[in-house]
Design goal:
Layout: H1 3-12, E1 47-51, H2 60-66, E2 68-71, H3 78-82, H4 86-97, H5 101-116, E3 121-127, E4 130-142, E5 153-157, H6 178-181, E6 190-192, H7 196-203, H8 209-230, H9 234-247, E7 251-252, E8 265-268, E9 275-284, H10 286-299, E10 304-312, E11 324-327, H11 329-338, H12 342-349
Length: 350
């Protein structure tokens, strides 16, 4: 279909919002501005759109603070858009902005979306290192075409723009999948989101199904590793601990089981220059740990202490949790899995 024919078809088609596979909302979201995200029920938008808050995001700060969803095309008359005369909108776009073909079609679609999508449409954008989201009131406010610091038209947010999910957790861009964040590369203003279900799950604070499966598999792996560690011979256990630190980037500058009275391994981290001593025990109770912690503090020669115990007698705790690390049971097993020693444990347990 030629570009001109496509535009005619587009403008003559009755416009209705499409859900893009999203669940339908049970009711329109009406949220007073004083309500926090933690007070909200999970969202279930009918539609979802990405919107750029001005060219280069130059309205981002002001519109986020004011709770506004802005839109430009200031040369297009507001009354023509309100009448939903999309042919006339297309003509204005062609005459005033020189748009044609696919670019013209997209511009009409953007204006159409802004003026017709309901309060059940989820709007997202990216600013200040976060994903921001909101719903918008259906009424469009015409601010005026000659406002330098203000968008010519806008919709009021239902409440405000949020950068937290409904559990109060920040939606940092660097912790989101590129499947979603790539939409920020869109060169115009409004577009559909290619990963709508993912976006809704992240806003609702729901874990991705594949991640949940991965965590379950990892917990089973750690449980099995803990059982295999418990069955290691003492000599193999010392070798195992040495391997964990070596694969973690620590360099040993004393022999395993050396002659020094108060430690089994002296380590150094080349990247940071940190020094640590590691005490490896087949079995220990709290009094033994307390004794070594006191030696660590009084020496002043080390930045960290690792107390690695094969079979602790009771729960071992240290007050200086930032510098004293206690490894036993699942904590030790998790470290082994993280550095790739699961196969080594299988070989030693065979």
């Amino acid at each position: 279909m030629a570009a001109a024919d496509w535009f005619v078809y587009f403008c003559s088609t009755d416009y209705e919002s499409h859900s893009a596979g999203l669940p339908s909302p049970t009711k329109r979201l009406e949220r007073p501005s004083k309500l926090t995200v933690k007070d909200m029920d999970p969202i279930a938008p009918k539609d979802i759109r990405y919107i750029k808050l001005g060219e280069g995001g130059h309205w981002a700060d002001s519109c986020i603070e004011r709770g506004e969803v802005p839109f430009d095309y200031h040369l297009i008359p507001h009354d023509v858009c309100v009448r939903r005369d999309w042919r006339a909108v297309g003509a204005y776009l062609h005459e005033t902005y020189g748009l044609d073909g696919r670019e013209l079609t997209n511009a009409v679609r953007e204006i159409r979306d802004f003026y017709t999508l309901g309060a059940d449409c989820l709007w997202i954008t990216f600013a200040r290192g976060y994903l921001w989201w909101t719903f918008a009131q259906p009424e469009i406010e015409w601010v005026g075409a000659n406002q330098e610091e203000r968008p010519p038209r806008l919709r009021k947010a239902v409440g405000q723009w949020e950068k937290l999910n409904i559990k109060g957790e920040p939606l940092q861009i660097d912790k989101l999948s590129t499947r979603l964040t790539q939409v920020a590369n869109y060169r115009m203003t409004i577009c559909q989101v290619k990963a709508p279900e993912y976006a809704v799950r992240r806003i609702n604070g729901e874990e991705e199904p594949i991640v949940a499966r991965g965590r379950l598999a990892r917990s089973v792996l750690i449980s099995i590793a803990a059982d295999m560690i418990a069955g290691l011979h003492w000599a193999d256990f010392e070798t195992f601990v040495d391997l964990i630190f070596a694969r973690s980037g620590w360099q040993r500058i004393s022999r395993v089981g050396g002659s020094m009275k108060d430690l089994d391994m002296l380590l150094q981290q080349p990247a940071t220059g940190e020094r640590a001593f590691v005490q490896v025990k087949s079995s220990a109770r709290q009094a033994v740990l307390d004794d070594y912690v006191e030696r660590f503090r009084s020496s002043g020669a080390f930045d960290r202490m690792f107390f690695v115990c094969h079979s602790p007698q009771g729960v071992l705790k240290a007050n200086d949790s930032k510098r004293v690390h206690i490894w036993s049971g699942d904590v030790l097993a998790a470290a082994a899995v993280k550095v790739g020693l699961f196969d080594w444990l299988i070989d030693q347990s065979a």
